[in-house]
Amino acid sequence: MKYIPWLLNLAYNALMNVRRALIQNHLLAQPVKCVKCQVFGCVKCDESQKCYECDQNLKLDQANNQCMIMDNVCSYLNNFYQGATNIQNCQKDCSPTFYQNMETQTCEETVNCTQIQESKRFSFDERVIEFQKINQNQYLVVGNGCTFALVDQNWDIINVQVLQNLEYYNFYYTSNGQETDRRSFIVGYYGGCSAGTVLKVVNFKTLEVEFEINNTNYEYTVQHVDQINQIVFLVSLYSGNIMLYDAINKNMNQQKIEFLKILFFYQIENQTSSIYLMQQH
């Protein structure tokens, strides 16, 4: 009788060895664990949140572990995709409870945003409007009041810049905590603000002012940002001009337009050029 426990233990170890061999040779499935994917648009991921399959109308960017909008899902480059099952969800702006992910061209729920960690030197308490990855380990975040935060991959604040510190900013430019017309923009690794008849652009790699005009004569709002050619289109209800800020060449040009209110602005890309279409109100 004294050999029975020893024999049982020997039999158990033998069974475990057989089981491991079957798993290694894919003859026996491993236990399945349910993992909730935190990557937006991902339908299959592992325990480390590495995505393997994206939802309909989205494609997998394995290098950055994110789901991006497929080519030709939305008709124009300035449209954002909200939702992962309905092709009709292409729209120019995201809903108030969503933010515009410029890199993936999708609308993501604000409640799912990673919270920016405040440091002893910097704080950021403005409502986030947009963020973009500007290099491998850093992101540029813009909030209300032309407030920009440079954060690292852990969302710790590196630097905060308020490009236009106007006391009346919220009174004139926001409604219920949301900006009614955009006065701030991110293009490449530059952040800019057009509030208060001033255009100011900061290089967030060097943290230096790259371009500044102290009197633009009129209030300009951000109509469209061409991230491919790094051109920002600014419009005014009163000037009859559309201003083009070229971030690459660091200059400003203006073009006369026959109408003051632009209802839709579209950007179409072909192999050799960019085409911009404007529809008047």
Write the layout of secondary structure elements.
Blueprint: H1 4-24, E1 42-45, E2 51-54, E3 58-61, E4 66-69, E5 80-81, E6 90-91, E7 98-101, E8 106-109, E9 128-135, E10 138-143, E11 147-152, E12 157-162, H2 169-173, E13 174-175, E14 178-179, E15 184-187, E16 190-193, E17 199-203, E18 208-213, E19 221-226, E20 231-235, E21 241-246, E22 251-256, E23 262-269, E24 274-280
- Which architecture of the largest domain does the CATH hierarchy give at level 2? 7 Propeller
The biggest sheet, with number of strands, parallel, antiparallel or mixed sense and barrel status, is:
6 strands, mixed
How many E strands?
24
Compute the number of helices.
2
The named CATH superfamily of the largest domain: YVTN repeat-like/Quinoprotein amine dehydrogenase
**Shape, please?**
globular
Give the end-to-end Cα distance, rounded to a whole number of Å: 94 Å
Protein name: Zinc finger protein
Organism: Tetrahymena thermophila (strain SB210)
List keywords for this structure.
four-stranded antiparallel beta sheet; 3 domains; Zinc finger protein; Methylamine Dehydrogenase, Chain H; mainly beta; 281 residues
